[in-house]
């Protein structure tokens, strides 16, 4: 075994697998750019305070952060997610609202690695800051939905909930706290610990022994104000108008205090239940304010790239593609011809490759075949002497031809068109 390997929970994405990572982000970019979203590229590293604002009570922030003191004695962290950075950027740059942005890239969380859960994982996402319209919630959800459809996924389920307005949520949390405290003996030890910090997160527990207590817990819908109910109903009727199927899942509460109204999760139907969320998001308030800006409503989602690709594997869609070139230059003379011609081809915008180390004709033809090239240019010492080269079609029954040097580029372009 080599001395150095990737750290636990971190992976190399090699070709051809990496081709679909790039296509994934490109497809996402197309989907959201066509809806008026601009790209934000925040740094990977921020002052740790930015992430502390995301939620002091979440595992992401309390236990899983990759943080350290830099050489300037600043306490910094690798980002565990990107919403906080987007809000920090909003406060820093004060763009006009509504501000619609999308992002992509890696995040870092010190979690227990397993299939679909990594310490470095990629997300794509969008955020809209400065608009409270429930139809914006529908737009955001629909963009996530459309994207999964574009990937070809069929088994994606949308779970939807509303946390109501902050006062509704506060009364709900108080009721929940009282209920779980009354039933504390029936909770798992882990949930007892969670209860001491945040009663809402007990609802997230997937431990079987907590199931019965959770099933009997108060429901957020019993606490909605009229305005909260109307917002939620408007979102649901918008989704129905777009024929986007959803289930209301009252257990879908995000543990963070600043979430309000709509929350949602995209669930991959083929994945193991512990790691089946392929994306999630919701409407939030107060995050921009916590970071020093004006009170600003926001909504967004983040989709997990790594996990969505596992769902694509399960459904046999969005496969990796072998990259190929159009032309392969076979040169058995060991001279400068392959070097110069390959350069000319590339300058003319024709993808091309060649062999090195003066391999045999047979070996170079093998490489040409593997490269996926449609045409091989074959150069031997006779051809160099005559200054005309052989063009051999590799994927058709067409006959090879001999082309004078000065007609090479035009002939190739014609053959490829
Ligand atoms: P979150 O930022 O926790 O709401 O996560 C949004 C999405 O990112 C999830 O639905 C997952 O698809 C993905 N995700 C979160 N954490 C991880 C992880 N450790 N490894 C892989 N994917 C993750």
Describe the protein in words.
The protein has 417 residues and is α+β, with helices and mostly antiparallel strands. The chain has two domains: 17-165 and 225-315, Bira Bifunctional Protein, Domain 2 (BirA Bifunctional Protein, domain 2, 2-Layer Sandwich), CATH 3.30.930.10; 327-416, Rossmann fold (3-Layer(aba) Sandwich), CATH 3.40.50. Helices cover 37% and strands 21% of the residues. The strands form three sheets. It has an eight-stranded mixed beta sheet with strand order 1-5-6-11-10-9-7-8, sandwiched between helices. Helix 1 (17-33) runs antiparallel to helix 5 (134-151). It is elongated. The mean pLDDT is 94. The protein binds adenosine monophosphate.
Give me some keywords for this one.
2 domains, Rossmann fold, alpha+beta, 417 residues, 16 strands, single chain, BirA Bifunctional Protein, domain 2, eight-stranded mixed beta sheet, five-stranded mixed beta sheet, binds adenosine monophosphate
Brief description of this entry?
The chain has 417 residues and is α+β, with helices and mostly antiparallel strands. It has 16 helices and 16 strands.
